Amino acid sequence: MATETTKSIFWQGARDGAPFILVMIPFSTLFGVVATEAGLNVYETVAFSFLVIAGAAQFTAVELMRNDAPTIIVLISALAVNLRMAMYSASLVPYLGKAKVWQRALAAYFTVDQTYACSIIKFDERRDWTVGQRLTYFFGVAAPICPPWYFFTGVGAMIGTAIPDGLALDFAIPITFLALIGPMMRTRAHVAAGFVSVTAALVFAFLPFNLGLLVAGVLGMMTGAQVELIDSRRADRSSS
Description:
mainly alpha, 13 helices, cell membrane, transport
């Protein structure tokens, strides 16, 4: 019975993650194309996806490489974009923190926007789940998402510039993030952070090397944290 339950939870995660395949295929294919245009060969491009497995940071890095940005700017920008992973990890600790070290390490590797978004919503709904059940669901979500990312990165790298510009594969990038962010705008802090980051990205778009995105990210996180602190204090005063 336990095995059936584990299988059921795994497939539930796989079903929740499956819709992202529709954007993951063009998203990863586009990355393969962009990476080869930036000067990476097929093996380097695929290795990049295996080692980093962070789409937004990878796109940021190769775009800066294409623009001949200094290496330090490439590294700082990619790390800044990936700072959200630290926040993802922190919010998953109450649910997965008691797992074994190797399980946490594997979960950390597969923590991407899609696995986090699906898992944090499900974990909040199913607080009765054990750590093992949560991990099973988490890896179930990752199953239909991560392998296509690796495979189609290689496909994009091999076909390279053969893809016509009119195909416009880059539509997958905004659609992916809109699909992830929309359901998570559940608090004033989330909405405030989103509004400030979008506004700041537009205001500071003139900065070189896409540094406006770094400024926008920092301002958005500061705003979200401040609004959450204000709301928390109001809740404390109301309960006292």
